[in-house]
Amino acid sequence: MLAQATLPEHRDYHIAGADLRVRAPQTVLDVLDRMFGRVAHVWLGALTPLVVDVTFDDVWRIAGSMPATSKALAAASTLPQVAGATIATLLAELAAQRGLNLWRAAIVECDGNALALLGDDWETAITLAAHLHARGWRIVSGDYGLVDPATMTALPFRKLLHVNSSSIASFPLAYRGAVEASPWYSSAHTIAFYAIDPELVNGAAAWAERTPIRTILKIDGRVGTHPSIEAAGAGQAMLVPGPFVETADFLERWFRALPPVA
Hints:
Layout: H1 2-5, E1 9-15, E2 18-24, H2 26-35, E3 50-56, E4 60-63, E5 71-73, H3 79-98, E6 101-110, E7 113-118, H4 122-134, E8 138-141, E9 144-148, E10 153-155, E11 161-164, H5 176-180, E12 184-186, E13 191-196, H6 199-202, E14 211-219, E15 228-233, E16 236-240, H7 244-256
Parallel strand pairs: 2-3, 7-14, 14-16
Antiparallel strand pairs: 1-2, 3-4, 4-5, 6-7, 6-8, 6-9, 9-10, 10-14, 11-13, 12-13, 15-16
Helix pairs in contact: 2-3, 4-7
């Protein structure tokens, strides 16, 4: 199987104004096809494309043009783990070569301004993004944020939402059908995560285009009885979440009261 998996295949993408190519075993590309189901596959051809290679010998090796973005994974790694590491390398290459910031963030848009949810508590960030999306907000990016530092504008990245199975029970009811229709990936003993397509919730209106960031919320590891926000500096604050529905209500009221981006 692994000998067959090393045949040279590739996929082409267009993300944040850049043409990109992933050369990888077909088994890895099959997972990328699902995760990148809403990412543009047509090159513009304006600049030399960025290329990431995925190979297997005794380990999985993922390499772009820069050593700092390269990764190696154990042979026992699951294909979704390899695909996820490939995406991380692809975006790191893109950010470094195009002068963008790469954040681990869920970025959502309301009324032409974006809210970026960052923090180590990633499951809370993606769950809150889903609750806001179910209320009519649009998704700029679900797990990695590409940001133009000169304008603080979030660039769209339409990867399917990577959701840990332990978080599904906290997702809004509007996502139930989307979860049931989504591919899932397992570890040796259980379902590890779902790849959820937001378009299955409210169609193409799920996605936003490039959007100025109004504010950044860092999610605190604490969980409060009720949500609260603690100021942390210009354009940034710390969110202590409470129950998800109450926190989404709170965020909507708080965000809409902020001054618009100049």
